């Protein structure tokens, strides 16, 4: 279900973000419009995306998701409306790639977290999902690819 996880060092990356706090059952209704809003604002500033969009999940409980809809950018973005400048910090992470429909991401995260625990690794609570290939890249969800990252703690 997931590729063999690996430990890597990331480099700092400027981002544009929209902070979101929503009930768990509304995440699908806010994601698409949020991504469209973010990309439109970045484009309106003449700034290019530096890679695929992603989410940075800050807090998840059974009822509420708190996360940032994000895109890496080639230049700093001004705060404008809901869009804020951000930074994906340089850090050591454990990373894997899940290939398949978004509905399978929950079990894939379970597999990833079990692997992390079996290795005795300690990670932060927050995590990142990079949507490398999704509906915009083709209609077959079996080919969609999502990169999962968790920050490693010392």
From TrEMBL:
Residues in AraC effector-binding domain copies: 3-153
Gene3D superfamilies to which the protein is assigned, alphabetical: Regulatory factor, effector binding domain
A Pfam family annotated for this UniProt entry: GyrI-like
Superkingdom classification of source: Bacteria
Protein name as annotated: AraC family transcriptional regulator
